[in-house]
Structure formats: C-alpha cells, structure tokens
Amino acid sequence: MADTQIRFGILGCADIARKVSRAITLSPNTILYALGSRSIEKAKTYASVNNFPPSTKIYGSYEAVLDDPNVDAVYVPLPTSLHVEWAVLAAKKKKHVLLEKPVALNAREFDLIIEACDSNGVQLMDGTMWMHHPRTELMKQFLNDPNRFGQLKSVHSSFTFCAKPDFLKNNIRVKPDLDALGALGDAGWYCTRSILWAANYELPKTVTALRGPIFNESGVILACGSSLQWEDGKVATFHCSFLSNLTMDITAIGTGGTLHVNDFVIPFEENKAVFSSAFKSGFTELVTGWTPLPSEHIVPTDLPQEVQMVREFANLVKAIKESNSKPDTKWPSISRKTQLVLDAVKASIDKDFEPVEIVS
C-alpha cells in the first residue's frame, strides 16, 4: 500500500481549490490527476496559473472527471447548493468524496450524500483542515486528561475576518442561491466543529441564537452568534463574522484546567502551531500574579495541515481499494453533527431567537 498513489480529480476552479490542489501535489500518496470546469479554457488557465503538474488531465465539464475510470477520488469545492447533486453523482460513479464545508444546506441534504456514499462503498470526508494538524491531537490529549483539565464546563469559539467590499458584493458565500448560510455556514462551521470537538462530539440539548445577527440585502448572514446548552450543565458560545478583524480563537475551560488557542483554523505559521494550557491556576500570595504560569506548547509539523488532511483521506481510500476495508464512518458522523448544530442555529434565528432542541 505504501507505493499506491490515489488519483484525485477536482470539480471546479474555486479559490480554495488552489490550496487543496497544492496539498494533493505535496502529499506523498496522491496525484493531482484531473481538473474539470464548465469551461475548458477556464480550467486550462486555472491549471497553468496554479502550477498544476503537466500530466493533469483538463476537462470541460464535471461529468468528464467523474467518467474518467482512472480517477479514484474527487475534491468538491463547489458552492454548497451544488453539493448534493455532485457529491451524490460522484458516489454513484464510485469516486471517493472529499467535500468542502459546509457539507450541505441542511442535514436532510447531507443525509442524501451519506446514503449515496454508504451504498456505493466510498469514503466521505469534509475539508475541515485544522482537524488534521498534529497540534489538534496534542490539545485533545490535554482536554481528555482528568488530572490536568478535569471535566469540561464551557467552550468559547470565534472565527471572524473583515471581508473586502468586493467579497461582500460578489463572493459566492454572500449569494442566497449559492451559499445561503453565509457566515454561519462558512466561519460558523469552524466554531461549531471546535465546540463539538472539545465536547467529544456530544451534541448539545438546545441551541439558542444570539440576538443581533447581521444580514446583507439578500438576507444572507454576514455575522451571528449562538449559545449551546448540554443537559449536564456544559455551555458554549460562538461568534462568526465577515465584518470583524481576523480572529480564530478557542477557549475551553474545565474544572482543573484551561486551553487557549488563537489560530485554530489556520495556524500563524505553516510549519508549526502553538497553544497554551493552564491547570491548577491560582494567585500569588499577594495576588500580584498567577501561579503556576500557563504553559506554551509549540507543535512542529513536517507537512501543512491541508496536506495531512489529504494524506489521511487517501490512506482511507487505499485501505478500501486494496484491503476491502469499509469506509470510515467517523468523519461523516462528525460532519453530520456539525451540520445539525448549524441547522439549529439557523432555526433559532428564524424563530426569533427561541431555544431549538437538537434531535439527531
């Protein structure tokens, strides 16, 4: 299996595909095999500008990529409104699916994608890159340590960036027919995932959107927030926005310790990432400082997180192809839970900020 390289096709010429195509090229177990666009000229230009390998096949349609028998897997960075159509078709064509987030406009749509992947025996994973950084595993070890972190009590997460006027006018993430969830589906996806990750993917009982979301003239969310409540008393909040300075924070607080990370979506530097942890925190005798001081942890990585993601996905695909393994159900399950929370936040906004109970 070590010598097998998974051949990737990409559907569309989205901006984010520039980053993932580079990751496919850098990953030791994948080949950037094909690119499809609705315009073959656009695809040729995109491949040239983004330094695709000369061997990459260029197609003038998405269907042609899916019909290529040599394509093992596809990366789908299309607008969210197109995910069901093309992810389902990819699965029916026996192509494994790396799907950009948000995975769908709602969980009901995503269930159609899961069903298609399950019935055709193909792997499904969403494109949440930070989940695959080695820092994430080390942070998780701290959160799961009963002697240092203790029991999780609260999580606070934010992902904001100040979008330029052209983005706010023309980007697909502000178009109701393309990505109707706006900032909630884009930045809010990461916040929600970070909260569920900290809570070991235990779904909250209720979700209550915070008052004061901001919409554009088409009714797409540009900024919003929410609180989440669990039956055991855990709470969480998040804020996501296209209108505020770049921030990517997680604060997770336990009975014994606290985790802080300030760049969880995209690390400040590509080859390393930092987080801080504190436990048994208290004041000095004269209350002039803290003791013990929080610890800073620097986590190096030989490959960027998006390459780690592609490599892990390809390893799952190889296991299916060569060892008749079943597709890993962990990743679709995590995606679905993230989508369920987004659905509940949107429903709470639509219901004048009333609490919405999550039913899985």
From TrEMBL:
Top-level taxonomic group: Eukaryota
SUPFAM superfamilies in the cross-refs: Glyceraldehyde-3-phosphate dehydrogenase-like, C-terminal domain, NAD(P)-binding Rossmann-fold domains
Gfo/Idh/MocA-like oxidoreductase N-terminal domain boundaries: 6-125
Domain annotation GFO/IDH/MocA-like oxidoreductase: ranges: 147-259
InterPro entries documented for this protein: Gfo/Idh/MocA-like_OxRdtase_N (IPR000683), GFO_IDH_MocA-like_dom (IPR055170), NAD(P)-bd_dom_sf (IPR036291)
GO MF term (any one): nucleotide binding
Family: Belongs to the Gfo/Idh/MocA family.
Protein name (Swiss-Prot/TrEMBL): Gfo/Idh/MocA-like oxidoreductase N-terminal domain-containing protein
UniProt source species: Coptis chinensis
